[in-house]
Amino acid sequence: MAPTLTFHGAAQEVTGSCYLLDTGASRLLLECGMFQGNDETERQNERPFPFDPASIQAVVLSHAHLDHSGRLPKLVREGFRGPIFATPPTRDLLEIILKDAAFLHARDIEWENRRRARSGRELLTPLFTEDDVTQALSQCRTREYGQRFQVTPDTDICFRDAGHIIGSAIVELWSGGRKLAFSGDLGNKDSLLLHDPATVRAADVLLLESTYGDRDHRSLEATLEEFEEILASATGNVIIPAFAVERTQEILYFLGDLYAAGKLKQQRVFLDSPMAIAATQVYGKYESLLNNEIPGARARSGKRRLLPPLQFTHSTEESMAINRVTAGAIIIAGSGMCTGGRVRHHLKYNLWRNEAQVVIVGFQARGTLGRALVDGAKTVRLLGEEIVVHAKIHTLGGFSAHAGQSQLVEWAGHFTERRPHIYLVHGEPEKMAALQTRLIQQLGFSAVEARLEQTISI
Ligand code: ZN
Q1: Dihedral of CA 17/218/197/243: which sign?
Q2: What spacing in Å lies between the alpha carbon of 373 and ligand 1's midpoint?
Q3: pTM beyond 0.70, yes or no
Q4: Is the C-alpha dihedral spanning 311, 316, 321, 324 positive or negative?
Q5: Ligand 1 center from residue 67 Cα (angstroms)
Q6: Which of 47, 154, 162, 265 has the fewest CB atoms within 10 Å distance of its CB?
């Protein structure tokens, strides 16, 4: 039989990436991501897998983000014992990201169970624990970019650099005389650190992400110019709620650039997030995959990029000591949408000050504190207190780690040797529709939107 592929997630939505390849002789899972968003979306993580985890021979992972990897511990808990193939940086980031997810999940379950115990309701069991994360990590098998290798007896794959976060991959897959290409999350060519996404020229079927299928991003140059002006004119502290992987390292790199040019007036830069510090070290370890070196990372090459004002604050005590700094510092702290983490303390100590600045560098989902600030909230509730917002809130739009519409179309245009039939994945319906129109009208491709639980033949 021709191999088939079933979309078990990230179809008409951006999270829960999970595709099952069945060749008749083997079963392979491409991604095993978590559903993320509102409560209803996240409840999908509690449902049983629509296949038997023990029947899967191998998993192929494009990159470490939770919406691509977050259900791996659950898969392992429910009987999957095969190899998980990923690039070396993906494996290292996976350890940081999955351990953090297990910690947060355990904390949430504990709080909910205390409530349930008091009201006499049945207690919840966690979907996965840190032991499941350890087990999943022990099943990881790393492969470099550009090597074609066997994942099951009848299927080969090759990872190619996707330029989205460090270690991110486009997947080429060969099975039963057919070829599938999967874009993974495709990077934005406007990146300070990462290479442009590798091009692929032939496939029978292409799964193409469509997160920003309907628009292009503002240019990085304009974004950096604005960022520089904010820093130059700031008199109070500058708070940057940061995403631990990629965005933080890009910001550190840019601050290093400003410092080298004698343009950074802030005397202190705090990276106040154990997770972002750990991710920065992964970026340093694999510097050969980057265009540029990051300050503070333990780089092995001779040329060290320096940012002397930079301090990594690991402990809670060090983090709390920052509260005494009332002006002149840049404080980079998680979480990126201000839904938890140390940034909430820094916001509490700074939002009410007229001279403070908050720089939003990433997407803010509806219902988050970050979104409330972007939308101009006059007061916010923070750590049990009502805090007035006097600080200036800036939103910088050009830092996306995803290709914009024109870049997606351009990348698909490289499939000239064998033109694939395209299934759009990892996007909301209106973004997919916009991208579909351009692929059909501009490049003459056949392109359709993937539907959840749809099975196609390759
Ligand atoms: Zn991603």
Answers
A1: negative
A2: 24
A3: yes
A4: positive
A5: 7
A6: 47
